[in-house]
Amino acid sequence: MRKRPKVEHLFWPMLVCLACACPTQVIAKTPQPAAPAVLDRVVAVVNNQAILNSDLDDEIRLSVLDPGRAGLAVLTRKTALEQLIGRTLIQQQIREEDVLAADPSQAEVDARLAEIRKEIPACVRQNCASDAGWKAFLSAHGLTQERVQAYMRYRVEILRFIEQRFRQGIRISPQEIETYYRGTLLPQYAKGEATPALDQVSPRIEEILLQQQVNVLFDGWLANLRKQGEVEVLDPALESPETQSVSPGAGAALEGAPPPASTPEWKSDPLDVVRPGPGKGSQ
């Protein structure tokens, strides 16, 4: 009597075929993974501290809060990178020297921000002095209150550091003040036009001359800091012939309030330089 083949013997060839076919079908139906999306990238390194592409975007957005850029074109990415490199070098130096006195209080940051909200033309047009106008301004420029607070804090911190490090010991003589008054200020007035008296403008002239000396010391110090440090720009499109000039100058770092209301309206730059002004360094 012939034995009946077992069931598994009958189905084994079919199972083998299915086993061979299934992986091919699974692979064919599995979607290929998408190429990885680049969320951010490093554009420069300052003493092992990375500056990201998103930092440039952030700096450009925040430039609307810089009084020194009122009326200027939108900040370019090259200039934004130069500013970030300069600021990073300064902040690293502050941390290295452990300059606790440069750390501003929240009240000082709030006071400076309140001034900014009333000074910047773009802010004035949107009535930033009011809470509703300020919120609308932030929304229009892709900013948040928290980010603006952080930005204002390190600007005030750098300003205080520069004040403490470079203003100390600088003295302006009466002769220097009179020379500026007669050689720079008076020639700006037309013949027969009323001119301010020397004693009336001496404090303002003294502050300008002092700030000019601070600017020279600061620019030299920052250039030397750049030479001693390790700064590498990784994006060729962001390199420029003026790469060594890591900031737009001390004037940009030392942004301050406009002249007081009691000061006459001067005719040109010599008495309109941006500066911290007396007492502004503690803001």
Kindly summarize this structure in a few lines.
With 283 residues, the chain is mostly helical. The chain is built from ten helices and three strands, in the order H-E-E-H-H-H-H-H-H-H-H-E-H.
CATH fold naming of the domain at 42-102 and 156-187 and 196-259? Triger factor/SurA peptide-binding fold
**Poorly predicted tracts of residues:** 6-27, 244-283
Name of the CATH first level of the domain at 42-102 and 156-187 and 196-259: Mainly Alpha
Question: In what range is the share of β-strand residues?
Answer: under 5%
Give me the number of helical elements: 10
Cα end-to-end separation:
108 Å
Category by helix and strand content: mainly alpha
CATH architecture of the domain at 42-102 and 156-187 and 196-259: Orthogonal Bundle
Major β-sheet annotation: 3 strands, antiparallel
Mean pLDDT: 76
Physical arrangement of strands within the biggest beta sheet = 2-1-3
Q: N-to-C SSE series?
A: HEEHHHHHHHHEH
What is the approximate shape? globular
CATH homologous superfamily assignment of the domain at 42-102 and 156-187 and 196-259 = Porin chaperone SurA, peptide-binding domain
Q: Radius of gyration, Cα only, in angstroms? A: 31 Å
Number of strands: 3
Percentage of helical residues?
40-55%
